[in-house]
Amino acid sequence: MRVRRWAIASLVVGASVLALCRVGGSRPEKKLAAHVDELTQIMKRNLATPEAGVTELFDHNREHVSAMLALWGEIIAALDRIEDDRARERRGRQIVAGLRPALDRFGQAAERFFDRVDRDPRARAALEKRLARLKPLEDLFQSLSAAVRRLGRP
Question: Taking the model in full, what pTM does it have?
Fold first, then answer.
């Protein structure tokens, strides 16, 4: 009985450690980087099967986009709460250092993957079909983009 309890406790602790490692620890940029790395792995896994990759990417996003956007929000709010300029700069550099490698890996994988999607008529059709679902938000995204451009003007 004691061995069984030890085995169960070991499994629970091991699974918890693995889960923490998978989401990248407690820093929001590490958690977000872990999500980005998952997307990168989906693209890498599906280079030979871009149609399946498109489906997997959109399915993954459906399940995780809320958490990913919440992490972006957490990062922005955390920086805004830091009153000391030097401390905010230091934390900003930590955030960039935590995210940039994952975003660079994502960019490289995306370039290769979407090149394959572009050359595969079925994959391209699957992508267009999935993007069409977001068409109702197109005007909103265009308005947001215009607002951001206006912010950058003197």
Answer: 0.75
Residue located via tokens 């955030």: 95
* Domain boundaries along the sequence of the chain: 24-151
Rounded CA gap, 99 and 69, in Å?
Answer: 14
- Tell the burial category of 16 from Cβ atoms under 10 Å away from its Cβ (0-12, 13-18, 19+): exposed
Q: Helices in the chain by DSSP H: which ranges? A: 2-22, 28-45, 50-81, 85-119, 121-132, 138-151
pLDDT tens, residue by residue, 17-73: 334 344 445 799 999 999 999 999 999 999 999 999 999 999 999 999 999 999 999
The predicted-structure confidence for 19-32, as pLDDT tens digits, reads as follows: 434 444 579 999 99
Q: Assess contact for 51 and 122: CB atoms under 8 A.
A: yes
- For 153, the token pair is 């003007």
CA distances to 61, 135, 145 from 64, in Å: 5, 20, 23
**Both tokens assigned to 83:** 């009153």
3-state secondary structure (DSSP) of residue 135: helix
Q: Are 117 and 58 in contact (CB under 8 A)?
A: no
